[in-house]
Amino acid sequence: MQYTVKQLSELTGVSPYTIRFYAREGLLPGFTRNEAGVRFFSERDAVLLDLIECLKSCDMTIAEIKQYIDWTVEGDCSIPSRLELLTKQEEVLRTKLDKLKESLDVISYKKWQYTVGNEAGTMSILASMTEEDVPAEILDLQKKLLEKGHIAALNPKLR
What we know:
The chain starts with a strand and ends in a 12-residue tail after the last helix. By secondary structure, the chain is mainly α. The chain has two domains: about 70 residues, Orthogonal Bundle (Multidrug-efflux Transporter Regulator, Chain: A, Domain 2), CATH 1.10.1660.10; about 60 residues, no CATH class. Helix 5 packs across helix 7. It has seven helices and three strands. A hairpin with a 5-residue loop joins strand 2 and strand 3.
């Protein structure tokens, strides 16, 4: 099946402008044009477009994505290069994911503090709380944050 830019956009949710940009940059190398200049894309292009959007969301540059696409065009001889690129990108994403999880823990901890302060009408309530007043999951979160060096979890009096 063949798709026009509009049809490919409707199928993938990627804007027509972005599809045209990718085509110009060589990221969709398989498209054809009819005698009127209308671009036509294949199902392979639709699959490739989905992958491009994924790689872009992983903070890969257009140049890196273009290199990957070029390697796919080269065929099987570039499998090791593609594997290496994706392996490196996976490592980058795992590091970012770990940092995001840690940031989420800090936000969750602070949110709990503000929820308690909001319910009491004052943040000073935190200073008078004993460990028995604090839910076990918050104590665990606090311990985890302290182990990772987040001094914000050290003293609830310092908000």
